[in-house]
Each structure stands twice: as C-alpha cells, then as structure tokens.
Specification:
The chain is an alpha/beta fold and about 300 residues long. The chain folds into two domains: about 120 residues, NAD(P)-binding Rossmann-like Domain (Rossmann fold), CATH 3.40.50; about 170 residues, Dihydrodipicolinate Reductase, domain 2 (2-Layer Sandwich), CATH 3.30.360. About 30% of the residues lie in helices and about 30% in strands. The strands form two sheets. Strands 8-9-10-7-11-12-13-14 form an eight-stranded mixed sheet. α5 links the parallel β5 and β6. It starts with 5 loop residues before the first strand and ends with a helix.
Length: about 300
C-alpha cells in the first residue's frame, strides 16, 4: 500500500527523545519513522526498544532520503539552528526542540532560511500545550478576560531536581563551563505561555538577577563561559498590546518545581499557584476552582 501520511526522521535518540519517539510512532498521520544518530550502538538499541526497523547514521544521510518529509531535531541545543537550516535547505519540514538557536545571529539566519526556502519550521515548546494554557486560550478567544493588562509566568527548577545530572550528561568533563548559562537566555517555557494566549510579543525589558552564593560554584564571574553570576532572574516586559508581563527563571529555590502562568484582564482572570488554579471575576462569589478541569484536559 502506498503511504498517505508523512514520513519522519527523528534526529537524536538520547534521553530527551524517549518521550517523543512513541508520540510520532503513534500519530495517525505518520506512516513511517526513521531514527537517526551518530552513535551506532545507541541507534540500534533504540531501534530495537521502539520496534522501528528504519535507521539512518547521520543527518547528511537523512537529508538525502527523498522519501522523508520532515526532520525532528532532538539533539543538543547548540546544534538546533544549524541542523534546522541544513534540513530546510534539503527540502524537509522541521520540528525542533527548544531553543531555536543559541545566538541572535543564527536565529536571524534561521528565519531567513525559512523565508527563502518556503519551508515549514515549528519550534517544539511543550508549554504551549499545558492544560492551564489551553484553558486560557479558549477563554481569551471568547473574550472572557476583557482586555489583558498583566501576565506572569515562571519556570522554577532547582539544581537539586536533576539539573546536575543533566549538565554532566550533556557537557562531560566540561559541564561547569555550560551549566551557568547566559542570564535569561532560555525563558521559552515561561514566555510561550503568555504569547500563545494573547499573541502579543515583548517589546521592552528590564531584568534583575540574584547573585548566586551556592558552594557548588556554578555561577560566578569566572565560573562559566558567560561569566554569569545569576542563578535566579526576574524580568519585567512591556508587551506589544500595551500590557505588562513578569517572567521568573529560578534555579535556586525552595520549591518542588513548576512551569505555570497567571493572566489578568479587565473582566476576568486566571490565577495559578502551588495551591491550585482558579478563574475569578469582579464578583468574589463567582470564583471557580479549576484543578479538576485542568487535570482532565
């Protein structure tokens, strides 16, 4: 039978890919999945684990396969932009894990590549699909917020919650060079929630950082490639629709961890905290607890 769905090549079969390979193999519009990785042993192990017969030894070979419609990039983040551009130039549609790129220059080049080739590029920010974000998009589309005047979103992920292991796995012996990261460089888990609801984008920013004093020495003037001293950052943005937005990115925090948002409008508001989520209006008696609704989304 001639395939009628799309054929997808998944580039990178590491730990992150384990959540995505089953999704693409189960998707009703995907007829064929090809796994791709430079590590031949890891590639064969994952092919057997996920019962996928087709494999590819490199992105070069994947791009040369005329049968493949799309490339899914689940590689190290500094590879995303160049690999996306290579795949687009080869006529492939691209789904990339976040971030889209590391520098403004390469992201600009990526945008130009999409425009020049006419290809399709999608950034795979998972926060776009969080239950609270879906709920807010629905209510916003019905005008229930009125005019949005303020939003806040945050990504709380303390280093004690697995980040040491992640950076050691990614960076090897040089992991400390990368673990500090540039300040407010990777806030897409937070910003995407707000942007996806209102469609407004950030136009101006003022950002403050908390100078880290942890004994592990990951953050400091000489501690990492970027001389970043700040483990926690808070940014206040002016939005293109005239509203304000606050974003927190915290890596030292006495908290179980969260990716969440709250959105406040002139007629109604969505508020989310560790205690739960609620929809409120000017009438206190109209408050609606949303935990059960969001859990079933």
């Amino acid at each position: 039978m001639t395939p009628v769905g799309i054929q997808v090549g998944i580039v990178g079969v590491g730990a992150f890919a384990q959540s995505f390979i089953p999704l693409f193999t189960a998707h009703p519009l995907v007829d064929r999945v090809v796994l791709c990785d430079l590590d031949a042993e890891k590639l064969q192990q994952n092919a057997a684990k996920h019962q996928i017969s087709d494999t590819c030894p490199s992105l070069d070979d994947l791009c040369a396969d005329s049968r493949l419609d799309a490339a899914v990039l689940l590689t190290q983040n500094w590879l995303h932009a160049p690999q996306a551009m290579q795949a687009l130039e080869a006529g492939k549609r691209v789904y990339s894990a976040v971030p889209a790129g590391i520098s403004v220059e390469e992201i600009r080049e990526l945008v130009q590549t999409v425009e020049r080739t006419g290809g399709i590029y999608m950034i795979g920010e998972t926060s776009y699909y969080y239950p609270g974000v879906l709920y807010c998009r629905d209510r916003y589309s019905r005008g229930d917020f009125g005019r949005v005047v303020y939003a806040e979103a945050e990504y709380y992920h303390d280093f004690d919650h697995g980040l040491y292991q992640v950076y050691k796995w990614r960076g090897g012996d040089s992991w400390r060079e990368f673990a500090g990261g540039p300040p407010m460089h990777y806030p897409t888990h937070s910003t995407s929630q707000v942007i996806s609801v209102t469609g407004a984008h950030m136009t101006r920013v003022s950002c403050r950082g908390i100078v880290d004093d942890h004994a592990d020495g990951i953050f400091g003037d000489e501690a990492n490639r970027w001389g970043n001293r700040f483990s926690n950052e808070s940014a206040l943005f002016e939005m293109s629709d005239g509203s304000a937005c606050r974003i927190n990115e915290f890596r030292r925090i006495g908290h179980p961890g969260a990716v969440r948002m709250s959105l406040f409008g002139t007629e109604g508001s969505f508020e989310q905290s560790a205690a739960g989520a609620v929809w409120v209006t000017k009438d206190r008696d109209d408050a609606v607890a949303l935990d059960d609704v969001l859990a079933s989304s």
